[in-house]
Amino acid sequence: MFEKFKGISKGALIRGGLLVLALLNSALQLAGYDVLPFTEDDVETFLTVVFNFVAMGAAYWKNNSFTKPARDADDKLSEEKAKIKAIKKAQKGRR
């Protein structure tokens, strides 16, 4: 059943689904049905809470190195990544 969606990204499917929901909601409002029983204040509060949680998650998802050993480890990791990148670039040059 889902094979036809295999080449489509998750983001495209989510955006498409949200568009269908928005169009359906607009059509029902035009017909006089109040589908979403929320006030503007409810929506604003919900969006504020979601924004705060997304900001919090984004802030702590990254590797926040506060201690000296952690910063040293980050520097070492960056050096190793640069070495690997240089090796891959050299290998591509040989082809």
From TrEMBL:
The chain crosses the membrane at residues 12-31, 43-61. The keyword Transmembrane applies. It is found in: Membrane. Pfam families: Holin_SPP1. It comes from the Bacteria. Its main location: membrane. Keywords: Membrane, Transmembrane, Transmembrane helix. This is Phage holin. It comes from Oceanobacillus neutriphilus.
